[in-house]
Design brief:
- Helix content is 48%, strand content 14%.
- It has 237 residues and is α/β, with parallel strands linked by helices.
- It folds into 2 domains: 55 residues; 156 residues, no CATH class.
Length: 237
Amino acid sequence: MAKISRRGFDENDKRWFSDKELMKLKKAKEEVEWLINRDYKIEPVVNFVSNKYQFSIRQRDAIKRSVCSYKKKMIRESKKLPIDKVSEGTIYIDGFNLIITLEVALSKGTLIIGTDENIRDLAGLRGTYKIIDKTEEALNLIGMFFNEYDPSEVIFYLDSPVSNSGNLKYKILDHTKNWKFNTDVVLVNNADIILDKLDRVVSSDAAIIDKCISYFNIAKEIIDKYIQEANIIDLNT
């Protein structure tokens, strides 16, 4: 039995993302984007603006994961494929990215929706991963979604240096008996390097979607469709 755990959940988020703090975060996001649209580097700009508002680390992460220059937003928009194209070929999934985002959504952990409409988490696992009870649910939802949209094949890429990547591979493969589409799971040293060069990628990682040929915003589709109770912070409004 996988450990019951709330991925990406932090009790302090009630304070960090209260109505009063959200007003400040939205203003800060606007200021950061004004500067990065004028070619200022994102890291120092986020630090500079966040220091002004005395934001916590979680709030700084939220700003960093939500902002996007107008130029990058347009590029990402042009690469984004409509969901009805899923059935037209192989899908290449950034495995940890998609699964962790869904685990956080199922845990009611804090998610951020970016200017580019991609949903990102604040879990910050960075090389460590454990299978939890929500992993099972996340994989069930992935299977339900792709069973409906009928791709010819789905390939998950997992970073082998991340702890428990091998266990997650076998957990995914165990679910394929309920899936109508062909599935493969590949352990690689660095998934980003492979996904960067592909089309029909599934990821919300800004570094990947800026480089890949085309991508699907599947995490948002699955959350919108199946996880209505997800805790999504929207700083765009």
